[in-house]
Amino acid sequence: MKKHITLGIVCLARKTYDWEAAADIYKGILEAVKKIEAVTWEIVPELVISVEEGRDAALQLAKAHVDGVVCISGTFHLGHLVLELRRENPVPFLLWGLPELPYNGGKIRLNSVCGLNLNASNLYKSGVRDYHASVQNTIDGDWVGAVRILAALKRAKIGIAGFRADGFFNVGVQDNQLFGAMGALVDHYELDEIYRQSVSGGEISARKEQLQKTFDVGGISAEQLGSVASLSAKLHSFYRERNLDALAIRCWPEFARDFGVAPCAAMSLLQSEGMILACEGDIDGAVSMIAHQAIGAETPFLFDFSQVDFDEDCALFWHCGVAPCNLWDGTCQRSLDTYFAGGKGVTADFVLKDGELSVLRIDSALGEYRIFQQKARAVPMEKLLRGTYMKARFDRPVKEVLDLIIDNGFAHHSSVVYGDYLGPVKIFAKFKGWKITE
């Protein structure tokens, strides 16, 4: 489900141009944008022409606490207007220019692009960088997506249960740096708070039945099945009671020892329902999944860039059995197994479906945040391994992708989703002033 946001929209004009035509275009735009899902619109209904009207519009949008402002140059207009809007609304702006109308009597009717240029220059020279410009007949959906990411991270409550996994120094974060960079807050919980979470027998029974319908459970004992069902119910209740947007879990080495099973299979089940669960205490991984979910990507999950085959030019995206079970390829057998942690692993085992992929890592290093993203495609493969995995091919040689990861020191987890979600991330990175490697 896409992150719900509030957007302001305003159309600027000047009566020395064809402002009546601009007004008609604006009415059509307002009808079109109202159809965009998960957006509440704060609309300035009339053209804004004078400085006084600009001030009034700015205050109207500020009162609505908008997450972003769509600023349409209906025609060329006064340079004051965008600055009045920005002064009261320090949020991302979409500077929207309209394609020029057919000339009428040898006169430019809108001169909208020049108005956009004026606005961009005024903002840039004022030190403002979180604007994006487009010239088209319809709203730039990637900009809307970028605002969704900003809003989701600004309001995110991320839990970490335990700590990062033993030795995984590269997924550690500094909580205040994370808050300063995005607004996300991290709350710490002990693992035994999950173990002790109160759930009913009915909740556990329902989860047990769900697991039996979803997986072949013949490879695990009845006691292990009961433990996975109990943990699924406990994690779900724990997550909801604390109003978390994501939970990073120190899933080894203590979890299997102290609870009786590792959380992999339970995480696979719950992630298929939209919960964001990050392996090995990886908070930046959770942040990456929140970003993907905010723009409408379904069931993001973390994977390891585990193997490369230079001859076949592909990579294996693998993890030890946590991928959302709804992403199964529909061909192989989905099963639960106990191949690690001394027989207490209880992981999901299946091949993921084929299709277009977007890969994302929002990553902290040396006191700064940066972004890695790639476009890839999952291709069919046989079930040859335990855990959850897919064979992926990129739009470029796999060695180039591996070099980008290694040479820039990105962590070994990334969020992956089905579909093309690169555009909004590019604009988000621009807003934040972060380097993007792709």
From TrEMBL:
The GO biological-process annotations, alphabetized, read as: monosaccharide metabolic process
Chain coiled-coil ranges: none
- Is Ribosomal protein one of the keywords UniProt gives this record? no
Against SUPFAM superfamilies, the record matches this protein to: FucI/AraA N-terminal and middle domains
Q: Determine the domain of life of the protein's source.
A: Bacteria
UniProt cross-references to InterPro entries, sorted A to Z: Fucose_isomerase_N/cen_sf (IPR009015)
Record bears the keyword Calcium = no
What GO molecular functions are on record for this protein? intramolecular oxidoreductase activity, interconverting aldoses and ketoses
Any idea which UniProt keywords this protein has? Answer: Carbohydrate metabolism, Isomerase
Naming one, the record's GO cellular component terms include: cytoplasm
UniProt xrefs under PANTHER family: FUCOSE ISOMERASE (PTHR36120), L-FUCOSE ISOMERASE C-TERMINAL DOMAIN-CONTAINING PROTEIN (PTHR36120:SF1)
Could you identify this protein by its name?
Fucose isomerase
Q: Which organism is it from?
A: Breznakiella homolactica
